Structures are given as structure tokens and as C-alpha cells.
Amino acid sequence: MPKTNGDSCIQVNGSARLKGEVKISGNKNAALPILAAALLTEGDITLNNMPNLSDIRLMRTVLDELGAKTTFDNGVMTINARDVNKYETRFEMMNQMRASIYVIGPLLARFGVARAPLPGGCAIGSRPVDFHINALVRMGATLTFDHGSMDLRCAKLRGQRIYLDFPSVGATANIMMAAALAEGTTVIENAAEEPHIQDLAWFIKSIGGRVNGAGTKTISIEGVAKLHGASHTMIPDNIEAGTFMAAAAITRGNISVEGVQLKDLRPIIVKLMECGVSIKEHKNALKVVGRKKLDPLKITTLPHPGFPTDMQPQMMALLSTAEGVSIIKETVWENRFMHVAELARMGANVNVQGNTCVIIGTQQLNGSKVVATDLRAGAAMVLAGLAAEGPTTVYRADHIDRGYERFEEKLRGLGADVTRPE
Ligand code: EPZ
Fold it and tell me: Quick one: pLDDT band at residue 123, thresholds 50, 70, 90?
């Protein structure tokens, strides 16, 4: 029996071909650093198109606990960080959400002190934060460890040239935020190029920061003395969009995915078309039509603009229903294959060899009881359930709530039989 932890579950009755329109929400992985970046200023911040997700609500709590004043209503978050008077994130927060690490850069830059517990590992890897810390130390912070917590202090951060060994999204964001109030110019080489990094740069510019090159491998940030309030609208979530595109493909459906930024979806569009899915672009919408027989694929996950690791589990579910042998190589996270065993419960034929999976397409998945081992794995299990014969129960649905706004409701709007029993 799957370990259920007593949490909520999602029930899926498969076989319906999805059809209709779905509107994509604001981008979670852009929103999380932008919320932290609100700590950089005393001014009023208004963030529009904010997705109502458990990770977003948690980051709001992190800001509230530091002394910021926030409101969140109808997709609009307001933040005022004038009265921040605490500089430490609680262990419980960091333990629930590693993105809590985003507050250390802005806290250090504005107040000269930041304390946070080390994040620890999770289901997809050991998730170290050495790039974040090394960069802040290089910019002038003093680091001490105290009973599992790090304590960073500085009189004033100084701009530096920082080379990242790997284009880490989190480290790039943290350095950009810290550099916005540092003395002089910081240059990040081998920076992450993800759409959410570009959105963070737009936000920092809107509050008076000076950032150049976001979306390329070299980002430069000229520090300023003070930043001001602003209003900003979150970009659409490319991974949510990709997940609905995969849902259309796996059910051989016909849907329109509305409100997307096409350029952020290029790697996903290319791979789905390669396996036989028809995709037509129209302004900021995509018409996605699945085909009965899907071809196998070779996918290697890579930092943007390569194929996103956050779409890897959903593509694995899809390729389990293709005809032939597919290969997925995961190069971003060392342990992002927990969903393989869950897909196997449904009859998928997937073999793991190190960081590579061989997927032998199967005629029909069978509904089963499965566990969402992490956020994207959970979405993949729901997708597999949509294509399966018979009912599927996905336990640990709380993982899905971290990153998909009104997931079941949106799927139901496309004709899926998806419910969450009380
Ligand atoms: C972000 O995580 C995303 N999270 C993840 O999305 C996403 O999978 C990941 O980027 C890669 O795209 C958020 O944006 C909140 P990284 P992050 O730093 O920033 C190594 C989802 O499903 N590394 O780019 O934590 C690390 O171990 C989530 O929405 C170091 O070695 O990822 C990994 O192998 C899950 N030292 C690689 O770099 C460091 O200091 C990429 O990590 C930092 C990272």
C-alpha cells in the first residue's frame, strides 16, 4: 500500500479526451523570488497575477514573520517591508519550502544581517546552497554556523564578478537581489537564463534597480543606494502551461492553452511536436491536439533554454503511452525519478540506469493507487490517471497544491473526471 500520510488525495477516472480552454496562472517560480525582493525596499509593492498556491502563501508567512505587512486578495499581493525587524527565517519554514532561502540576499543587502537554517535535502536531490553562500561571502559577508543555522553579516555588500559552476536558478536570483543594493557592480557569469530570472530582473528594474543581461549567461547589476515601491504583473507559468499541453497529448484531446508566453515554451513545444502532437500558435494561446499514435522521444533535461527538468515527470507519463522506446536523461537533479515506481504501479514499463530512464511505451495504463512523491511527479500521476483505464487515486495531493492553482477545477473545465474527496 502506498504511504499516504493521511493527507488529501485526488481521484481520477480516466479515458475522457480533454477539450476546451484553460487559462494559465501566474508563474510560481517567478513569484517566489519577487516576493523576497520586496524586502529590498521600504516602498509599497503591488504584485498582480499572483497564483494562490501553498508555496506562495508560505512565502507570504515568511515575509509576515520578518515584520512585513502583506495582503493577498483575488490574485493581488501587496507588501510593505518598511517595518521589518527580524532577520531570521524559522526552521519550520525552511523545512517546508527551500525557496525560503531567497530572503537571505535581500535581508543582508538592506539590513546587513540574515540568519537562516540550512535547507537540507528533499525528494529530488540534496539541494545544497553553497553557490548562494559563497557568492554572498565573496561580496563581503561574514559567515558563521550556529547549531544548524547560518548567520551572515556585513557592513555593506560590494559588487563582485561571480562565476557559477552551474547556472543555478536560486543562486542567480539571490545574487541579483543582494547586488541590487550593493556598492558597485556585480557580474554573474554562467547565470541561469530561466524566464523567472527575467521576470525578477524586470521587477528589480521597476523598483529602481539597474540590471542588464537577464535571460543571457551574463547578468550585470549596478547597485543603487535605495529602491522604491512599484507595481508588477507576474509572467504566466510555463510549467503549468506545459503540464496542460501534456494532459491534452496524453488524453489525445484537443485544447486551447490561453495566456502563455510562447518564447518560454519553445523547448516543450518542440518535443511535443516531435512525438506527433499538433500545436498551433495563435497570439498568446496554443491549440494542442493529441494524436492516437505518439512517437517515442529522446529528452535530456537542461537549464533554460534546454528542456526543463520541471516537465520531466509529466513527459515520462506521456511517453509511457507512446509507441516505441523513449529515453530521458536527467542532468539537473540527481534524484528526480521517484515517480518511476509510481508509474510502474499503473503498468508503465520504465527502467532506470543512473540518471537515464528507458521507457518502453505500453498499450494501456491501468488506474491504481499511487503517491505524488513531489510537485511535478504528482502532476504526472494525475496525467497518467487521465489516460488510464479505471480509477486512479493520487495520495499526497498537498504536493500538487504547492504549484498548481485550482488544478482539479481547471481539469474539470476540460471535461476530466477529477475530484478531491473530503
Ligand atoms: C529552481 O530550484 C526551481 N525552484 C525548481 O523547481 C527547478 O527544478 C530548478 O530551479 C531547476 O530549474 C524554484 O524556482 C523555487 P537550482 P533551485 O539552484 O533554484 C545544484 C518545481 O518543481 N546547486 O537551479 O533550487 C543543485 O543541486 C521546482 O517547481 C548546487 O550544487 O534549483 C541542482 O543540481 C522543483 N549548489 C542544480 O544546481 C547551489 O548552491 C540546479 O539547482 C545551488 C544549486
Answer: low
The pLDDT of 356-370, averaged and rounded, is 94
Cell numbers at 353, concatenated: 540506469
Beta strands in 27-169 (DSSP E): 44-48, 69-73, 76-80, 113-117, 142-146, 149-153, 161-163
Ligand 1 atom closest to the CA of 309, numbered from 1: 8
Instruction: Decide: 403 in ligand 1 pocket, CB within 6 A.
Output: yes
Which residue type sits at 83? D
Q: Is the CB of 32 under 6 A from ligand 1?
A: yes
> For ligand 1, is residue 166 a contact (CB within 6 Å)?
yes
- What lies within 8 Å, CB to CB, of 353 at 6+ separation is none
Quick one: pLDDT at residue 3? 42
Contact between 286 and 247 under an 8 Å Cβ cutoff? The reply is: no
- The residues assigned a catalytic role are 122
Instruction: Pinpoint the alpha helices (H) of 67-146.
Output: 91-96, 104-111, 130-138
pLDDT at 111: 98
pLDDT of res. 148: 82
Q: Could you tell me the distance, in angstroms and rounded to a whole number, from the CA of residue 360 to the centre of ligand 1?
A: 29
Residue 308 pLDDT more than 50?
yes
Q: Whose CA is nearest to atom 9 of ligand 1?
A: 169
132 lines ligand 1 (CB under 6 A): yes
Share of the chain above pLDDT 90, in %: 91
CA gyration radius for the chain?
21
Confidence of residue 119 (pLDDT cuts 50, 70, 90): confident
The CA distance from 222 to 233, in Å, is: 23
Overall size of the chain counted in residues: 422
Q: Is 378 in the pocket of ligand 1 (CB under 6 A)?
A: no
pLDDT of residue 363: 80
Ligand 1 center–CA 121 separation, angstroms: 12
Q: How confident is the model at residue 126 (pLDDT cuts 50, 70, 90)?
A: low
Q: Which three cell numbers stand for residue 182?
A: 550593493
The DSSP-derived string for 229-268 is -EEEEPPB-HHHHHHHHHHHHHTT-EEEEES--GGGGHHH
333-361 burial code (b ≥16 CB/10 A, e <16): beebbebbebbebbbbebeeeebebebeb
Predicted TM-score (pTM) of the model is: 0.97
pLDDT in tens, 11-21: 999 978 999 99
Judge contact between 420 and 22, C-beta under 8 A: no
Question: Which residues, including other chains, have CB under 8 Å from residue 109's CB and lie 6 or more apart?
Answer: 40, 157, 177, 178, 179, 180, 181, 182
